[in-house]
Entericidin EcnAB
Amino acid sequence: MRKMMTAMVLAGAVLVSACNTVSGVGKDVSSAGDAVAGAADKHK
């Protein structure tokens, strides 16, 4: 579980760093949040 969360955080950091606009950052943060929520639901 810890490895998965670390991977998710790193993936989120990569997505955020790839953005050039504030709008893009919002989209990336939203998609990272959705991924984390999906992983959390999967491991209930």
In short: The chain is about 85% helix and 0% strand. The helical segments are 2-17, 22-42.
